[in-house]
Amino acid sequence: MRKFTALVMGLALIWPGEVLAYRPFDSTDAAVADKGAFEVELSPLSYHHDDDGTAWISPEARLNYGFADDWEAVVEGRAEHFPHRRSQVSEAQLDVKGVLQEGSLQEKTGWSLGTEVSVLLPGINTQDGAGFELAGIASQRWEWGTIHINIAPELTRDQRLGLFTGLIIEGPDDWPVRPVAEVNYQRTFSTDEETSVLVGAIWKLTDKLALDLGFRHAWVNRRPDEQIRAGVTFDL
Questions:
Q1: What region, left, alpha or beta, does residue 205 occupy, with left being phi > 0 and alpha being psi -120 to 50 degrees?
Q2: What gap in Å lies between CA 148 and CA 170, rounded to an integer?
Q3: CA 232 to chain centre
Q4: Which residue, among 36, 35, 119, has the nearest Cα to 75 in the 3D structure?
Q5: Contact 232/210 with Cβ under 8 angstroms?
Q6: What are the helix (H) ranges across the chain?
Q7: Distance between CA atoms of 116 and 73, rounded to whole angstroms?
């Protein structure tokens, strides 16, 4: 793991491209990787605790590739490790994300509007079945900060209808370290309900590299669920 992390950090320092980090959030922004470019969002190690116990997430990764102007393809997932049971791979999915209207995130005026279509893939030792999600995304940047709004109906892996809504608030984009926060509400009809709050920071070390750290507290059917998230984002 140490060699892998060192390799990732080294690649981040030598490859060009401006980073727009949207780790450590569950929601996303109305921006995509440039055409022909890769963007990597990686968490070498994160921590998760709920009523079922403690899990270490290592790694969690999202790879974005700009295959056309204003469009990218994405593959993502995470490995979870537990003290007394088998490890598992969860949250695996394939996405296609596009910018429908260029705005402040593309150095223009007004709202940036986007969409993301996701195929939710089966996991390993968890999350059997496949599902589908369609997200609408709106982002706006001002001098004081940026907001991102997400609304996403979904068909879960166990074939139930659900809805995800999210709001990200970021500090000024020109601050080297900007505070961030996120509020989400997710409901799978007739089964689960989850509300979460995340607070953290994104540290833009250079135009090539950004680090993130966040603490997330959720209530899943009124039971507590806590995560500490840390990661790196860079362009290839």
A1: alpha
A2: 9
A3: 12
A4: 119
A5: yes
A6: 2-14
A7: 10
> CB-based contacts of 193: which residues, under 8 Å, 6+ apart?
186, 187, 220, 221
Angstrom distance (rounded) from CA 212 to CA 46: 11
Token pair of 230, please?
């840390």
Q: Would you list the domain boundaries of the chain?
A: 2-235
Which residues make beta-bridge pairs with 228? 47, 215
Domain at 2-235, CATH homologous superfamily: monomeric porin ompg (2.40.160.40)
The DSSP 8-state label assigned to residue 104 in this structure reads: G
The tens place of each residue's pLDDT in the chain, 236 residues long, gives 444 334 433 433 333 334 445 799 999 999 999 999 999 999 999 999 988 789 999 999 999 999 999 999 999 999 999 998 899 999 999 999 999 999 999 999 999 999 999 999 999 999 999 999 999 999 999 999 999 999 999 999 999 999 999 999 999 999 999 999 999 999 999 889 999 999 999 999 988 789 999 999 999 998 999 999 999 999 87
Q: Is the dihedral of CA 155, 158, 163, 168 positive or negative?
A: negative
> H or E element: which one contains 168?
strand 161-170
CB-CB neighbours of 190 under 10 Å: 8
